[in-house]
Give the backbone structure.
Amino acid sequence: MFTHDPIVCGDSLSLMRQLPGGSYDAIITDPPYASGGLTTTERKASPARKYISRGRLPSFDFDTRDQRSHFMWSVMWMTEALRLTREGGWLMVCSDWRQLPTTSDALQAAGWTWRSLVTWDKTEACRPHQGMFRNQAEFVLVATRGSIGREQDRPRVFPAGVFRHYLKPGDKFHLTGKPVPLMAHLMEVLPPSSVILDPFAGSGTTIVAARQEGHTGHGIDVSPVHVQIARDRLANLAN
Ligand SMILES: C[S@@+](CC[C@H](N)C(=O)[O-])C[C@H]1O[C@@H](n2cnc3c(N)ncnc32)[C@H](O)[C@@H]1O
């Protein structure tokens, strides 16, 4: 599927079902959070309204599931992700504070072993709330397919569990884009030349980081607009 192009356009669940089992070292991804509001009406609003947008980045679909269906759908794609990952391989999945409990339940229901939580501290540049704490962090839940093996067989790295990074608007290619340095940080625990899948690739940040770190990255996104943005980013890297 990825022979000619590292980014494929389509529904990730359908496409993941076509890939051979055990073919990835890691699934590293940032799925739609279906978050961004205290009420059902707020959560069902388009991402362009829910999340801060300066108007120049396109919106995206499938971010409006209610809590129960978001949980069920997460278990479905995480189960498929488990099948695609080799024994001892990784799932690293982004979440916000609202969806953290649902995401940790879903990955364990899918059969993953939850091991760690990396915090992305987005700094005090985040929107302040009078009389309330800033929601200045997002999270990456880190899980493995079974055992991570003996300590002596693991890479000799000791990466921080909190990653503080301000993502400049000019470095964002997606409404909810992640920083390349964050994705590269997550890859520190992987063996050299790992093969990584991002089933919700958006603007291709994971694939860009994988290339920079000497890994192979494959991405899927249902939005043709974002697939094109990701392809353009990768083409610019090559130049
Ligand atoms: C949070 S964004 C990923 C942003 C990405 N981390 C970046 O830095 O650009 C989630 C993406 O998942 C895509 N998506 C939503 N449902 C999908 C599905 N069923 N299959 C494939 N992609 C989907 C959306 O189009 C959106 O681009």
User: Anything to note?
Assistant: The domain at 23-192 is CATH 3.40.50.150 (Rossmann fold).
